[in-house]
């Protein structure tokens, strides 16, 4: 149970803001939570240290004043004092050990596509909306912060990425202060990625789909659809009991829980009723088939990206060794630490298609050979 | 005299007020954004990847024929509201229009007799042509499909074609017709003569602008057993089935749970399973405009090619 608690704390830290704050008291408080506590794996209650993000907007503002506030907000963020004005940080070069940052995308849905052989397959659409780097913590500092796990050693720093800009008067002061360093409006959602120091990114850098290229492989992690407390038939696909023939109160029960003999007990990990879904899941090694630069959309293999439509998805370079080998052998490193539009002289095309993907504006596929 | 002061049960008040507190994390969809919020962020002036709001045309500007939506049901999006997304639907529609610019997809309905030729590696001429009656047409967007049925060598054959499959070479409508039912799967339980069509059938011409003829034929089904309980679905294109079914089946058919008469009056069900008329108008406007543009480009291309050929011919003559 203790393990569960710690795990849940770590998961929550993916979005938590005090990773960034250098407040030692906060860190100390969280570390105390390692004691064994009875509780649920997923809970609706926020932890005690979680400072309130949202602030209730006062209702007595006149519509003219509300309009004025909006104008002021837009003007202040039009030309903010960006940290990028000091000049970009030195860029590292890509090595097989490099771990770049990812992006925080939104799942749009599933659409079929065809290969040039005429094979149909499903793709998931992920939109990268308004992403910025909010903070970078080098490994020395990161290894002292609370989200750190011992087996990471001092290899990784962390990058906090935010998505979806909001108006600052909706949030508390402490939350707004997190974005002062990056010079961007406060974000609706934050997430953290582990990066190696050679992939460090300056706070305030915008991220878009061009962070990835067509043909690359990515991992997607997201929260699955929640089903609430479910029985054994729905949660684990057990058969249940018979519908009739004298069956009493055992139509959807699981049957026996364990045997007798030497190990006369219920084994650990026995599949039982409980909370289903709403859990972090990772799908690895998904190929990027197509990139739409106009709407910032990625087309990714398959329909198994977790979560419902319009959920947040963390998209990052795959950790699968055999997919990364490709990049090493071909000498085709991804943009480091991310894509900068200044690097390309030609205008960016609206669409990138994989070589194997069928382009809908090309002629139909035919096997008839012309004589 | 003042009324005696009543003791307030603070616990009770607290508990009753709790329901008005905003929930911190709603359980099931806490990882999901609502459609309006996503749209707001897409157009927000604070956003760095801002999508400019396009001024939507007044639907009365473009005169889209009323039948247009029935001719192109594949452009209507999936109606379940929590799986819809504007950008995905738009990208999907663009792909469809691109494909339609290359392959000529004619107007057809369930009940029309069609011929489809498709690239096939294993066929003798690397290409396969199939003639049959369209018994179903469904799917949204790029998932749209239709099913053709024919009897070949005394054996019923059905083939399902994805409409936007790039292997499709040609779609012809040999006989444009409508039937009384939206699906004709009952032909499986009818004599084969109802679904037999010659593979070398010649197209029946239809004058331009004429109404699509309705074939009001009543099919006589085979006696039971059937693949489905046809007596329960109120089929219009079938002769009365009373001779085939037992008294018990007739009684069962009248049961309210099977008749489901309330579905006729369920407005919410109708709203949930269909798309708003105004939205359909917008989509159809967009598609209609694009289609006209594509046709113009095609005509221009043909004209240019014709000119080139004419020039070549002149040079040859010289």
Automatic annotation (TrEMBL), chain A:
- Keywords, comma-separated and alphabetical: Mitochondrion, Ribonucleoprotein, Ribosomal protein, Transit peptide
Q: Which GO terms describe its cellular component?
A: mitochondrial large ribosomal subunit
| A GO molecular-function descriptor | structural constituent of ribosome
UniProt subcellular location: Mitochondrion
Q: Which InterPro entries does the protein's record reference? A: Ribosomal_uL3, Ribosomal_uL3_bac/org-type, Ribosomal_uL3_CS, Transl_B-barrel_sf
- Determine if Membrane is one of this entry's keywords: no
**GO BP terms, alphabetized:** translation
What family does this chain come from, according to its entry? Answer: Belongs to the universal ribosomal protein uL3 family.
Classification via NCBIfam families? L3_bact
Q: Specify the protein name.
A: Large ribosomal subunit protein uL3m
Source organism of this protein record:
Potamilus streckersoni
From TrEMBL, chain B:
Question: What does the entry give for GO biological process?
Answer: translation
Q: What is its main location?
A: mitochondrion
Q: GO CC: one term?
A: mitochondrial large ribosomal subunit
Annotated GO molecular function terms are: structural constituent of ribosome
Q: Where in the cell is it found?
A: Mitochondrion
Q: Which InterPro entries match?
A: Ribosomal_bL19 (IPR001857), Ribosomal_bL19_sf (IPR038657), Translation_prot_SH3-like_sf (IPR008991)
Q: Note one Pfam family from the annotation.
A: Ribosomal_L19
Q: Which domain of life is it from?
A: Eukaryota
Q: Where is this region: Disordered?
A: 294-318
Which of UniProt's keywords are assigned here?
Answer: Mitochondrion, Ribonucleoprotein, Ribosomal protein, Transit peptide
For this protein, the record's PANTHER family field holds: LARGE RIBOSOMAL SUBUNIT PROTEIN BL19M, RIBOSOMAL PROTEIN L19
Family label: Belongs to the bacterial ribosomal protein bL19 family.
Protein's recorded name: Large ribosomal subunit protein bL19m
* Species of provenance: Potamilus streckersoni
